Amino acid sequence: MSSNIRNICIIAHVDHGKTTLVDFLLKQAGTFQSHEVTSERMMDSDSQERERGITISAKNASFLLGNVKVNVVDTPGHADFGGEVERIMDMVDGAILLVDAVEGPLPQTRFVLQKAIEKKLKIVLCINKVDRPEAVGTNMVAECVDKAFDLFIELGASEEQCDFPIIYACARQGWCTSDVDAIPTFLSGGGERNLKPLFAEILAIPAPTDDPNVELQMLVSNIAYSEYLGNLALGRIKAGTVRKGQEILRHGVNENGKPSVQKFPIFRLLSYEGMKQVEVDQLVAGDIGLIAGSEILEIGDTFSGLNGKALPRISVEEPTMRMIFSINTTPNSGRDGKAIQSRELRQRLLNEVRSNVALRFEDTEVADQFYVLGRGELQFGILIEKMRREGHEFMVGRPNVLMRTDEHGSKLEPIEKMTLDLPEVCAGEVTKMYQQRKGELLAYEAASAIGTAEQRVRLTFEIPTRGMLGTNSMYKTATRGSGLISSESLGYKPHTGTIFHRFTGCLIADRTGRTTEYALAKVQERGVLFIGEAVDVYEGMIIGECAKDNDLNVNPVLPKKLTNMRTTGSDGITTLYGIKKMSLEKCIEWIDDDEWIEVTPKSVRLRKKVLASNMRSVRKIDKV
User: Fold this and answer.
1) Average pLDDT along the chain
2) Three-state DSSP state, 346
3) Which of 94, 163, 183, 622 could form a disulfide with 205 if both were Cys (CB 3.0 to 4.6 A apart)?
């Protein structure tokens, strides 16, 4: 029955402890046997999630509290994956909002909370990391609650939503309390160290009111794939009851955006027990499960009975930037992996877009190049790395923001509200960096307002999305790795003019061959090298960053001429100062509009779009 079901999600800013909290909810609810070995961040099952330490896609699990089944969804915290948060909001009736006791509500906190308030969810505020040294012995926890309440009011929450219960927790140690005065006792090792107060608030979240006795309706919120069962549709049963073997309808859209309906029999029904998918005979209204049987699936489709109607499709905020994907046209194509054809690349990108509602796909005027539209550099980087690990070879260009025009024909561009938390000594350098990129400083909050032990400040900028592109590495360098950055979209505003993405040129190989230490020793005097000796290069391949603003064609394969003359001294010794290793993320930040990133399973290279040196200009002014 629906009264024995609770559907909740965990929402928060990135790195505020969502996945860690879900781990302990599952453990303390008795989901695992005593002999079972569990790992940290169990819900982060993808290899990239574990490597990066972030949640990329929403995950489902369940646990039992007495005779009540609790379906829980762990959501991403990074702004680039906001589409994952938006599409699961229809599946739940309540949300646990996690806020870091020191950092307080940040831009992504605002974004996910706004979506939860719009869906009229019951919200439980959980102040996490109350054990952080900066928060111990201060009034930071109380300030954090006040800021969260102010945020509820600002976002237009109802009186009932503003009367939220508050839990104070240390997720990594698996305890919480509803009494703020009891925190010192818990920090000293006392108290009942479990999550019972949070479990009680979860049971207080309203049970689903969906009617199991009417025509079936289910909105497809996610898609999975099984080698044995084929496509799996994940969603919440909005109405009715569905049984194995039953014939139902899929309401979708075709390639032209027109409604389409297909009938299919249900092959299997699956539900969650812990993190496992188990086969069941039926799913009732209010429950979350998976349905196998339909060969064609898209997120946003509706499953209904034979006389049922379609539900409104899932809508998410529009993308703000796009990146161009191309087949690999370099001379080294096919050496490191599978050089896919344009038809295969197009199909691979379409498959990704169908399973991610935050992405869009567009054809270009060139037959072997395609646009993918998304929200941020990290989102693109995750997709590129995913395809690279599948063994594909391809190329990508620099991300570009999507412009619009108003009714008067004036150009508009996306604007972001950017929040920076950094050491005070770095504030001047960082402010100058973002003001050069058309950023406007809105607020400068001193360390006393934030409550951190060291002298830190919080800066708030209003800046074009173009101005933020490619600055992540520079920001980390300027703040010695201790700066935090987050942003939220403010919509579109008038275009702010030209922004120089990079103030340096590049060192470009002017011929094909294998690099020599002798040649690179001469080249390194003109800039910073990206590659070392004994590396195969081709004409047009970028091998380093030039110290000046113009490009420079160089010969990195020049051998040292051998003679039979004997000499003394060190004239035969060459030394390379050091190589700047360019990861995929650094390449995405660094490249300009006239350059490609060549992605292969074994390496990531940079190249000019025009390879022949006599066919392109090296002057920066010619590229603006």
Assistant:
1) 83
2) helix
3) 94
- CATH architecture group of domain 2-204: 3-Layer(aba) Sandwich (3.40)
> Is the CATH number of domain 321-396 2.40.110.10?
no
Question: Do the domains spanning 321-396 and 404-494 agree at the CATH topology level?
Answer: yes
Query: Are the CB atoms for 316 and 358 separated by under 8 Å?
Result: yes
Burial 114-142 (b: 16+ CB within 10 A, else e): bbbbeeebbbbbbbbbbbbebbeeeebbe
> Phi then psi for 331, rounded to 5 degrees?
-60, -25
Q: Where are the domains of the chain?
A: 2-204, 217-304, 321-396, 404-494, 506-622
Task: Specify the pTM.
Answer: 0.78
Query: 404-494 architecture in CATH?
Result: 2-Layer Sandwich (3.30)
Nearest to 550 by CA among 522, 592, 600, 599: 592
Question: What residues contact 581, with CB distance under 8 A and at least 6 apart?
Answer: 530
Q: Which residues contact 565 (CB under 8 A, 6 or more apart)?
A: none
Residue 407 has pLDDT above 90, yes or no: no
Question: Mind giving me the DSSP string for 208-237?
Answer: P---TTS--EEEEEEEEEETTTEEEEEEEE
Q: pLDDT per residue over 549-578, tens digit each?
A: 899 999 999 988 777 666 555 555 667 778
With 0-12 / 13-18 / 19 or more C-beta atoms within 10 angstroms meaning exposed / middle / buried, residue 393 is buried
The DSSP secondary-structure symbol of 70 reads E
The pLDDT tens digits of the residues spanning 35-66 come to: 444 445 445 455 565 555 565 556 788 888 88
Q: In degrees rounded to 5, what are phi and psi of residue 147?
A: -65, -40
- CATH fold of 506-622 reads OB fold (Dihydrolipoamide Acetyltransferase, E2P) (2.40.50)
Q: Measured between alpha carbons, how far is 539 from 613 in angstroms, rounded to an integer?
A: 7
Tell me how long the chain is: 624
